[in-house]
């Protein structure tokens, strides 16, 4: 079963705008990760946030985590055409390093 | 060269055939995983291995088997392929204690 669900399922924005996607999960986690997938290709790790962290930045990426609401958000600032991809959240539980993936958000950046 | 490679990249096979998908990694990671991806369902875990002598079922292992021939190699077999096993298959690796997983480029499998 899927642990996480991303919202929205699809998002189209103009280049230069900010893109925000959300992830909700069901059980307690050790950490939450975000991955990007270009069409039909392997996933690439973007950022990891631990359960005791609330916010993390990496370049144009900003991730927040609210463990009380069991939710996370990924913000991509100043979007570029190359950001067009699907984005997945994945959670890891305590004592178990397996990842459980969400269903993904398909992001399209319009030049 | 890519750190995680998968062969074949594309495969079309018939119902009932046995097929093997192979994964190799040069990262020296101890843990390896097989996932399948279906449209709208994200990735689901088929099997995983924490070292050469350790094999574990994931959430959708029925109809699949695996072999960890060496630390660097992890193969997925479909003993008797069926059409609903048509999907994109990914291998991934990581090092114990470091949660980031590294993915191969995927194998697109079509069962007719």
Low-confidence stretches of chain B: none
SS class of chain A: mainly beta
Topology as H/E string of chain A? Answer: EEEEEEEEEEE
Tell me the major beta sheet of chain B.
7 strands, mixed
* CA distance, first residue to last residue of chain A: 36 Å
Secondary-structure element order of chain B, N to C: EEEEEEEEEEE
The greatest inter-chain interface is formed by: A-B, 24 and 28 residues
Binned, the helix content of chain B reads under 10%
Oligomer: heterodimer
Structural class by secondary-structure content of chain B? mainly beta
Q: What is the overall pLDDT average of chain A?
A: 92
What global shape of chain B is seen?
globular
Poorly predicted tracts of residues of chain A: none
What is the residue-mean pLDDT of chain B, rounded to a whole number? 93
Helix count of chain A equals 0
Helix content of chain A: under 10%
Nearest-angstrom radius of gyration of chain A? Answer: 13 Å
Observed structural traits:
heterodimer; A: 111 residues; mainly beta; six-stranded mixed β-sheet; B: four-stranded antiparallel β-sheet; globular
């Amino acid at each position: 079963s899927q642990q996480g669900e991303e919202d929205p399922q699809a998002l189209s924005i103009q280049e230069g705008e900010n893109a925000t996607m959300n992830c909700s999960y069901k059980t307690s986690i050790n950490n939450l990760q975000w991955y990007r997938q270009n069409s039909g290709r392997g996933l690439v790790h973007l950022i990891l946030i631990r359960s005791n962290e609330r916010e993390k930045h990496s370049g144009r990426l900003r991730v927040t985590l609210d463990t009380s609401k069991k939710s996370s958000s990924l913000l991509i600032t100043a979007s570029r055409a190359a950001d067009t991809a699907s984005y997945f959240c994945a959670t890891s539980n305590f004592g178990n390093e397996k990842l459980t993936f969400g269903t993904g958000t398909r992001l399209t950046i319009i030049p | 060269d890519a750190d995680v490679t998968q062969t074949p990249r594309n495969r079309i096979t018939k119902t009932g055939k046995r097929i093997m998908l192979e994964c190799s990694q040069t990262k020296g990671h101890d843990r390896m995983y097989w996932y399948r991806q279906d449209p709208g369902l994200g990735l689901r875990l088929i099997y995983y291995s924490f070292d050469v002598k350790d094999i574990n079922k994931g959430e959708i292992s029925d109809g699949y088997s695996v072999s960890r021939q060496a630390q660097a190699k992890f193969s997925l077999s479909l003993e008797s392929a069926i059409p609903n096993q048509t999907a994109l298959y990914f291998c991934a690796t990581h090092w114990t204690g470091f949660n980031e997983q590294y993915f191969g480029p995927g194998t697109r499998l079509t069962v007719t």
